[in-house]
Structure formats: structure tokens, C-alpha cells
Automatic annotation (TrEMBL):
It comes from Digitaria exilis. This is Subtilisin-like protease SBT1.2. Residues 1-24 form the signal peptide. InterPro entries: PA_domain, Peptidase_S8/S53_dom, Peptidase_S8/S53_dom_sf, Peptidase_S8_Ser-AS, Peptidase_S8_subtilisin-rel, Peptidases_S8_3, S8pro/Inhibitor_I9, S8pro/Inhibitor_I9_sf. Residues 676-780 form the Subtilisin-like protease fibronectin type-III domain.
Length: 785
């Protein structure tokens, strides 16, 4: 999925590049993790100054005095809340010396990660019903959502603080000033803002030829739009009359409009670096956020190498719910990122809102497409072709021109014509700009086979529409069938309710998890396709209109858009149940999720057919049921440590993740038959064996619904798999009562031609108060020996 980021360019922006120092060629950023009780006195690091001195002491032992008289000047960040250690600029040799020092747990190179609603809140069933999620949670009041992203545009009406109470007394954050941003930009809605650029500045190579275009606000102000969009999705205020150039008009609201928010700008024009992300998480947890939303990540890597997994563990221990995007590398199998079991991982789904923009061919044929270009609406009347434009494809005769890369189009061939551009390589909106610069009058963006029928729309600079792969094949066939192919675009406005939804987006990353197959990921799916939310305004720092396409709202697609929806739901749940742990919040959201669409049919997959558990996890989020789930699965922080032992992680690998020492042999002997109390059930068997394999999983549920209630088990076993639940009935006397049960899974071999199977377990409340249905998906995979 191509997320288009248009940078604001103005002479007052500051360049985020390091000076071209001779020594910079040999320096790079490393993140150094320390044992807090080794290599120095733990009691000596209680203040920021002494902590910096302690961290510098390690550099003093690894950097020669001839090279550096003040090693502390190499330190970019000192961490101590979600991580014990520091980020510093050092050479490869100095990194090797650091690794050999007592008290150093790991030294890893900084890693670059990528950035992974007028209607979506209504699609989620959020309304003014007295028994709904908004009413029960007070719209999320009292909670604080932290957004780690590209910053925020504070003047957006989505961040208006009318009717908001003051920040909670526990809040200790700041409103950090900088380029065109000061303390007055914060208010009772946006209660804090910080920015982190040291890692980015240290890692980005100095390239004078790029200096003119790589410009940013050196402050929490958002030059990209991505952070403004995600923040308003999670907790934006009500904005009547919102639209994108007239499309998708309605009242915009975040999922938790009563929640406070804090912006932590960790992403810049060249991505998001781990050192900056850790610094943002470190401050956010210490500042007092309740929920952290991270719409960023990469490909799956081992948890002990994953800075987000490491930082989020301590955040979870401190009671912060961490919500992360699953990634946009779907539909590839095992592409899901942010797969730590203490993180709530979110995939993307569609809405039932469409923006039809048809292609009427010169031969009378009509192709369905979608666009948010504010074109004139009208019917598809047959008749003359006086308004048609000549069609041209691959205007330049090269592969680059097929994809409409800038500079690849023959201006004489495209002038005044409708240009067909294949998707891929560059951003969708970038192609429209390339066509316009070459003199083209309109554009048809054609999906290639890899994109299939995926329909993410954009705001283009010229009349344009996006067609699916099937339509693209028909379009190109028509072009080659006649000497003068022609077409016109017919824009049909906004249509709601005519599309089957939700469905899993094609680009949404899939499981099973590579690093942790005993936990099903993603956890849930949420709206992530063609999401309308706040956008930086069209008045630049100099007061000039820097981009005529900009308005207060724009449209984006990706799991980046899905994650803040769930972060907002987490805020609603936390507001309703302030004492709940992050695991209880995640359980409430997962076990209440929908597995059917708006038509009551099975949720479909953008890849084709019915969506499976590796595409949608527990299902599509349902806020109303999440705030009143009936039963929840809780997990204590120590249980995650034991779980990592069951995965075969070493003592040092577990320490790198949890900052906790553990003897796994003793831990597993003490917890024989341990299984993580996760709301979903995942079992991995080895394939190829002649004998049947079996596993026994133990689960415990806590009653958070009505007292004197009884739940009965209902299950559907995967094909070829036997499942037994004992006991099959759970009775609760009081609120807070806990009951345990066992799930036995037995299978001889995988179904023919498959390496996985799925089913479900449901605990259904019986009796007159039987409104709660607590559902857990079951996934069984067979892996090679």
C-alpha cells in the first residue's frame, strides 16, 4: 500500500541533516542496553544528570581519549522508563568494545521503520444511544492517548478543546516549542507535544543534492499529514461539515472524542528510527498516557531485536495499552509485524462507503473505478463522444512510462490526453503529478495483478480514477483494439451502504506469526481503507497557500489508519474500567469482535474468499460490546516472561525484552503445562509425524459482567482436529470471580493440501441476562520438522 506523504516546502523550514564532518563517515547510531544493577551503581542513576554520567562511563571505557575528550557528547538519548540504556554515535570498533564490557546487555544498530473520519465511527456503531460505548465511557473522558507519529497540526478543528476538562492531575508532560510551534499550541484536548530528531539526523546520510527537498518543521508540527490523520482518528473532536473537497461529507469525530491526546513526533521525511521511537515511548509512559498508538513498523523480526516490542513491554507493565499497526505487507503469509503478545496488533478492513468514478470507453463500455476528485457528477448516458479524451498508455515506450514515473512521459504523446498509469514503484498521487507536469489532461490508475481489486483512493491534482485489475485488463485490451481509443470519466459522488463490508484489505499483513506461532496475530481488524480524517491546513508558515489540494481533511489507507481506531476503542474501555490491565482491555476488544459483515455474512478477504483467522484475527472490532464484554482474559507481566521461556528464548534474550532475569529451567518446572492466558487460541504442531499430536491449553476468565451468571461452551473444531473443553459450564457468583478451564487439541495430520486449520470457542451466557458472547478463534498450524 503506497501511503503518499506530501512535504510542505517553505524557505523558513530547517534542514534535518548533520554537518558533513569527516568523522561522520565512521560513526553510526547504536542503541546500548544495560543491566541496571551491573556495571555501575543502580542507586547512582536516580536523576537525569547522574544517569547521563553513568551512561557516559561506558563510552569512556570504549572510546580512546585521543579520539574523544568528552564521550558524553556522543550520546543522543538516555533511556530509563521503557528501556535501560542509551543511544549514541559510535564506530563499529567501539560497538565491539562496548559489547565486551560488564553490564552491557546488547549493542544493536539503529533501525529505520516505515509509517505503516467523517463516517468510520458510525460504521463502528458509535452513536448517542444511552447504552452505547460513548455514553458508557463518557466519550473516553479522563484518558490520555499518546500518538507516536509525524507530529500534529494543532490548528486543525479536530483538536479544538471546547467542552474538554483540564488535563488529569497525573499528567506530567510538556508542550515542547520549536519551528512554528510553541506552548500556546497545546490546549485541553492536545495536552502535550514533543519531538525527537536526533536519531533521524544522525542516521540520514548527508547528500547535498537532496538538501533542497528534504525539509521539515523541527518541532511537533506535522509536515506530512500522517500524524494529524491518525491522532484525529483516535480522539479527534466533533467537526461538522467535514469532507475532502466535497466527498465523504459529514460530521467528523474521533473514536474517543472526549479523550485527551499527546503527540510524540518520532517520524520524519526518511522514516522513523528506533532510537527516536524509544525516546518517545520513554517520555510518553513517564508523562502519564493510558494508551499508545503506533502506526509504524517493519517486517517481523525476533522480539529481542525489536525496539517497539522491547519498549512496549515496560509500557505494558506500567499499565499502558500499546496498540500497533500490523503492517501493509499483505497478502503475503507471515508478514504481520508488531507481533509481541503484550501488544494489540491491528489489521485493516474496508468500509461500506465508496466513491464511484466510472470510465466510459469510446466503444460504449463502462468500467467501474473510484476517485475523490471533485468532478461533476452525472449519469452514464450513451451518445456522442464530444467530451471524450484520447487514451494513451506507456507514453514514452519504456517500463518507466508504464508506471508514469516523473520524467518518463513523452510530453508530445500525452498533451491533452487521458493517460493510463500502472500502480507500483511510486505513490499513486505522485503519478497524477507526473501526468499533469507532462501536460496530460486526466489519468486512469490501473491496478496490476498484485493489487487485484484493492481500491484505495486519493486526492489527485487532475481528473483521475482508480480501476481494479480486471477492469485494467479490459481497458488495455480496448486500447490495443482501435486506432484512436478514447474515454471520459464520470464521477458519481459518495455512496454508502452499497458495498459488502467490512472485508479484510488486500494489503493488510497476515499471520501466522513467524516469531511466536503460539499466539495468533493480528489480533483484530478495524477500518483502514479510504479513511477521512484531519490534515494539515493549507496555510503555510509564511501565510501562503502551499498546496491547493489541501483542506482540513484528507483520505488515507493502511493499517496505519486501522490502529488509531482501536487505540480510540481502548481509550473508551479504559475510561469505562479505569482499573483494568492492558491485557483485560485487549481481551475485551478481541472477544467482542464481529466475524460477520453488515449483511450478516462471513467477512470476506480482499485476497478472495472468506477471511481466515490469519487475516482478521478475532474479527472486526465492535466498540459497544468491547466496553461490556462479560468475561475477560487477564495476563500478569510475569506470565509473559514464562511464555518466552516456552518459546525457547535464552536468559539473555528474555532479559533484552523484559529487563528481567529468569532461570527458564526453574520457571518451567514451577509452571508445568503453562500456556499464556491469551484471548485467542493458537497451536503449532510439527508436520510429518505418523502419530497424532496433542496439546493442552489452560485458560482463566474473570467475570466483569453480571453476578450469578453462567456461561456454556460452544465450539467448532477445525477439520481433522479434535477439541475438548473441560468443564463445559462456568458459573460465577460475584463480579470479579475467576474460573479456569482446559482446551485439549488433538490432530494426526493437516488437512489435505493445507498447513493450517481454524475453528472457534464461544462462552455464551445463559438465562435471562444472557447477552454476553465471549468468542475466541482457534488456529492450528503444522510446521516442518
Amino acid at each position: 500500500m503506497e501511503v503518499v506523504i506530501k512535504l510542505l516546502i517553505c524557505h523558513s523550514f530547517l534542514l534535518l541533516l548533520l554537518p558533513a564532518l569527516a568523522a561522520a563517515e565512521t560513526l553510526q547510531t547504536y542503541i546500548v542496553q544495560l543491566h541496571p544493577h551491573e556495571g555501575g551503581s543502580a542507586s547512582a542513576v536516580s536523576t537525569a544528570g547522574s544517569r547521563l554520567d553513568w551512561h557516559a562511563s561506558f563510552l569512556e571505557r570504549s572510546v580512546s581519549p585521543e579520539q574523544e575528550k568528552h564521550p558524553s557528547s556522543r550520546i543522543l538519548y538516555s533511556y530509563h522508563t521503557v528501556f535501560d540504556g542509551f543511544a549514541a554515535q559510535i564506530t563499529d570498533g567501539e560497538a565491539a568494545s562496548l559489547r565486551a564490557l560488564p553490564g552491557v546487555a546488547s549493542v544493536r544498530a539503529d533501525r529505520r521503520l516505515e509509517l505503516h473520519t467523517t463516517y468510520s465511527y458510525r460504521f463502528l456503531g458509535l452513536n448517542f444511544c444511552p447504552t452505547g460505548a460513548w455514553a458508557r465511557s463518557g466519550y473516553g473522558r479522563g484518558t490520555i492517548v499518546g500518538i507516536l507519529d509525524t507530529g500534529l497540526w494543532p490548528e486543525s478543528p479536530s483538536f479544538d478543546d471546547r467542552g474538554m476538562p483540564p488535563a488529569p492531575v497525573r499528567w506530567t508532560g510538556v508542550c515542547q516549542g520549536g519551528d512554528h510551534f510553541n506552548a500556546s499550541n497545546c490546549n485541553r484536548k492536545l495536552i502535550g507535544a514533543r519531538f525527537y530528531s536526533k536519531g533521524h539526523r544522525a542516521n540520514y546520510p548527508t547528500n547535498p543534492s537532496e538538501a533542497a527537498s528534504l525539509l521539515e518543521y523541527v518541532s511537533p508540527r506535522d509536515a506530512h499529514g500522517h500524524g494529524t490523520h491518525t491522532a484525529s482518528t483516535a480522539a479527534g473532536a466533533a467537526v461538522p461539515g467535514a469532507s475532502v473537497l466535497g466527498a465523504g461529507a459529514g460530521e467528523a469525530r474521533g473514536v474517543a472524542p472526549g479523550a485527551h491526546m499527546a503527540a510524540y513526533k518520532v517520524c520524519w521525511f526518511n522514516g522513523c528510527y528506533s532510537s527516536d521511537i524509544l525516546a518517545g515511548m520513554d517520555d510518553a509512559v513517564r508523562d502519564g498516557v493510558d494508551v499508545l498508538s503506533l502506526s509504524l513498523g517493519g517486517f517481523p523480526i525476533p522480539l529481542f531485536e525489536d525496539s517497539i516490542a522491547i519498549g512496549s513491554f515496560r509500557a505494558t507493565v506500567r499499565g499502558v495499552s500499546v496498540v500497533c499497526a500490523a503492517g501493509n505487507n499483505g497478502p503475503a503469509r507471515s508478514s504481520v509485524a508488531n507481533e509481541a503478545p503484550w501488544v494489540l496488533t491491528v489489521g485493516a478492513a474496508t468500509l461500506d462507503r465508496r466513491f464511484p468514478a466510472y470510465v466510459r470507453l469510446g466503444n460504449g463500455g463502462v468500467l467501474y473505478g473510484e476517485s475523490m476528485y471533485p468532478g461533476k457528477t452525472g449519469g452514464l448516458k450513451k451518445g456522442g463522444n464530444k467530451d471524450d479524451l484520447e487514451l494513451v498508455y506507456a507514453a514514452g515506450g519504456t517500463r518507466e512510462s508504464e508506471y508514469c514515473l516523473k520524467g518518463s512521459l513523452d510530453k508530445a504523446a500525452v498533451a491533452g490526453k487521458m493517460v493510463v498509469c500502472n500502480r507500483g514503484i511510486t505513490g499513486r498521487a505522485d503519478k497524477g503529478e507526473a501526468v499533469k507536469e507532462a501536460g496530460g489532461a486526466a489519468m486512469i490508475l490501473a491496478n496490476t495483478e498484485i493489487n487485484r481489486q484493492e481500491d484505495s483512493v486519493d486526492v489527485h491534482v487532475l481528473p483521475a480514477t482508480l480501476v481494479g485489475y480486471k477492469e485494467a485488463v479490459e481497458l488495455k485490451k480496448y486500447i490495443t483494439s482501435t486506432r484512436r481509443p478514447s474515454a471520459r470519466l464520470v464521477f458519481a459522488g459518495t455512496r454508502i451502504g452499497r458495498a459488502r463490508a467490512p472485508a479484510v484489505a488486500l494489503f493488510s499483513a497476515r499471520g501466522p506469526s513467524l516469531t511466536n506461532p503460539s499466539v495468533l496475530k493480528p489480533d483484530v481488524i478495524a477500518p483502514g481503507v479510504n479513511i477521512i480524517a484531519a490534515w494539515p491546513g493549507n496555510i503555510g508558515p509564511s501565510g501562503l497557500d502551499v498546496d491547493a489540494r489541501r483542506s482540513n481533511f484528507s483520505v488515507l489507507s493502511g493499517t496505519s489508519m486501522a490502529a488509531p481506531h482501536v487505540a480510540g476503542i481502548a481509550a473508551l474501555v479504559r475510561s469505562s474500567h479505569p482499573s483494568w490491565s492492558p491485557a483485560m482491555v485487549r481481551s475485551a476488544i478481541m472477544t467482542s469482535a464481529d466475524i460477520t459483515d453488515r449483511q450478516g455474512k462471513a467477512i470476506m478477504d480482499g485476497e478472495g474468499g472468506r477471511a481466515g483467522v490469519f487475516a482478521m484475527g478475532a474479527g472486526h472490532v465492535s466498540p459497544a460490546r468491547a466496553v461490556d464484554p462479560g468475561l475477560v482474559y487477564d495476563i500478569q507481566p510475569g506470565d509473559y516472561v514464562t511464555h518466552l521461556c516456552t518459546l525457547g528464548y535464552t536468559h539473555m534474550e528474555i532479559f533484552k525484552i523484559t529487563h528481567t532475569g529468569v532461570n527458564c529451567t526453574a520457571e518451567l518446572q514451577k509452571n508445568r503445562g503453562f500456556s499464556l492466558n491469551y484471548p485467542s487460541i493458537a497451536v503449532a504442531f510439527k508436520s510429518g509425524g505418523a502419530k497424532s499430536s496433542s496439546a493442552v491449553l489452560r485458560r482463566t476468565v474473570t467475570n466483569v459482567g453480571t453476578p450469578n451468571s453462567t456461561y456454556t461452551a460452544q465450539m467448532a473444531a477445525p477439520p481433522g482436529v479434535k477439541i475438548a473443553v473441560a468443564p463445559t459450564t462456568l458459573s460465577f457468583v460475584e463480579f470479579g470471580d475467576q474460573r479456569s478451564f482446559r482446551v485439549t487439541v488433538e490432530a494426526a495430520s493437516p488437512p489435505a493440501g493445507k498447513d493450517s486449520a481454524e475453528g472457534y470457542l464461544v462462552w455464551k451466557q445463559s438465562g435471562g441476562q444472557g447477552k454476553h458472547v465471549v468468542r475466541s478463534p482457534i488456529a492450528v498450524t503444522w510446521v516442518a520438522e
